[in-house]
Specification:
The protein has about 475 residues and is of the alpha+beta class. Strand 4 and strand 5 form a beta hairpin. Helix 12 runs antiparallel to helix 13.
Length: about 475
């Protein structure tokens, strides 16, 4: 039942300013009014801040990262969100072709510095004041805001930085310079230069992301020594942005050897024998292509070796440790979009003449999905605050946050009922986009095993301890 205040007196002006089952913010029994009456010294320990959760979280970030988060949200809200549904519904094109909307977005993102913001000038477009903060943390802030607006456009703009990661992690300064400096300059001029990351093979799948699986798997893409270079043969599949990339970091085993010989090669678009064969008509994140890439006698020089021979496996695992945290942020962004959509629906919809938001079971559902989303974000930020995120932490964040996204979207769909399945309501698109986050960067099952792999020494030590003597049951 709604609380009714007298027409006169200190709260008479508050009629209609509260939800059913709650007192108004200025009511003497509300937390805001109660805490306002505490002594000034106590306010250093306890205070009620009516700002939104997003504003409160942003205010706790270092100032350069506050600016990054606000700028990312502004770009996402003005450029990505308005065309999210239209981009999702665009016809599927042959490999290598792009819709004008896609080309325009890539050009705009390059001009505004979003394609190369991992590094400062002249290697990139990132703000110098942000460089003291970990790459993963900066990426997570951007990825969450872009995902909240549109998962597909987020992947279109961000997967390219996954392709850059092995070059960055190689520590090869001449290669880094000649790869990124001209590319960043071209992007700023509206001529986006894209990279892609190619590890997945038709017969391997997640074996490329798990040591135990790779040990028993035969590599599909191989490299054979020829003259002062290497000849690559084989196929890669499900390569995000691989159809539009100007350069691809390709992982290949040396001929006659296994995954332990994996070596990373930088292959240029237009190299004879290299071509995108197809892009998949996929379930979610449809604004970004997932390409099959074919390598048929593709010759690359020794200068194209990234990080040295047989260093591909270490570069691959290091890249995944960095990228799994931003994938976790994809889940957080998609969950936040579901929270926003369900909240707007509850506030704007009436049932039997009563606002949905005034029903207690609706309030309970909203509180649950808000809490799940905030907890997921906290896990990401905790893991991303270090320059060298541990595998187990990154993997935990990845599977927990992406599973949470699916759970939150399900609950939001239950709240909205039949409207949830309509394309225009956004939730069905969020579900399709979120499902992919449970699969790439290693399936969530693989990521759970990565946590155990990270704890292996501790677990073996525990297993080696003497078994305590147990008394027989009476």
């Amino acid at each position: 039942m709604s609380h009714v205040f007298p027409a006169s007196g200190p709260v008479g002006h508050l009629l209609g300013t509260h939800l059913e089952g709650h007192v108004a913010a200025a009511h003497p029994l509300s937390p805001r009014a109660a805490m306002a009456g505490l002594p000034a010294i106590t306010h250093q320990l306890l205070a009620y801040n009516p700002q939104s959760i997003w504003e409160l979280e942003t205010a706790r970030l270092p100032r350069p990262l506050q600016a990054l988060r606000r700028r990312a949200r502004a770009f996402a809200q003005t450029q990505l969100q308005p065309q999210a549904l239209a981009m999702d519904a665009l016809p599927h094109l042959p490999a290598g072709e792009a819709h004008p909307q896609v080309q325009q977005l890539l050009a705009l993102a390059g001009q505004e510095g979003w394609l190369y913001d991992m590094l400062p000038p002249p290697l990139g477009s990132g703000a110098w004041l942000q460089t003291p903060y970990p790459l993963a943390w900066r990426a997570c802030l951007k990825v969450e805001e872009f995902s909240r607006a549109c998962g597909g456009q987020m992947l279109l703009l961000c997967a390219h930085q996954l392709g850059m990661a092995p070059i960055m992690l190689s520590g090869d300064l001449p290669l880094i310079w000649r790869s990124f400096a001209p590319a960043a300059r071209a992007a700023r001029q509206g001529r986006p230069h894209l990279f892609a990351f190619a590890i997945t093979e038709p017969g391997a799948g997640s074996d490329a992301e798990d040591g135990h699986g790779a040990a028993a798997c035969k590599p599909g893409v191989t490299a054979r020594r020829e003259r002062d270079g290497w000849v690559l043969n084989g196929d890669k599949v499900f390569i995000s942005g691989g159809d539009l990339a100007d350069q691809v970091t390709v992982f290949a085993a040396l001929e006659g050897e296994g995954f332990e010989s994996w070596t990373c090669f930088l292959v240029d678009k237009g190299t004879p024998g290299f071509k995108p064969v197809r892009t998949e008509l996929k379930m979610g994140m449809r604004a970004s292509g997932a390409a099959q890439l074919s390598f048929d006698q593709v010759w690359v020089s020794d200068r194209a070796v990234v990080g040295g021979l047989r260093q591909g496996w270490s570069l691959n695992r290091s890249t995944l440790n960095l990228s799994r945290l931003p994938v976790a942020s994809m889940g957080v962004g998609l969950a936040q979009a579901a929270v926003d959509t369900a909240t707007d629906y509850a506030c704007q919809t009436r049932l039997g003449g009563k606002r949905l938001i005034d029903f207690q079971d609706v309030q309970l559902t909203l509180a649950q999905i808000i809490a799940e989303t905030c907890a997921a974000r906290a896990l990401v930020w905790q893991g991303a605050r270090t320059w060298s995120p541990r595998q187990g932490v990154a993997s935990m964040a990845k599977f927990h946050c992406t599973d949470t996204a699916i759970s939150v979207i399900h609950q939001a769909m239950d709240l909205m009922g039949e409207r949830a399945i309509l394309h225009g309501a956004r939730l069905e698109k969020l579900y399709r986009d979120a499902r992919l986050t449970q699969i790439f960067e290693g399936t969530n099952q693989i990521n759970r095993l990565s946590v155990i792999e990270d704890l292996q020494e501790d677990l073996l030590a525990r297993a080696a301890q003497p078994t305590p003597t147990r008394r027989p049951a009476p």
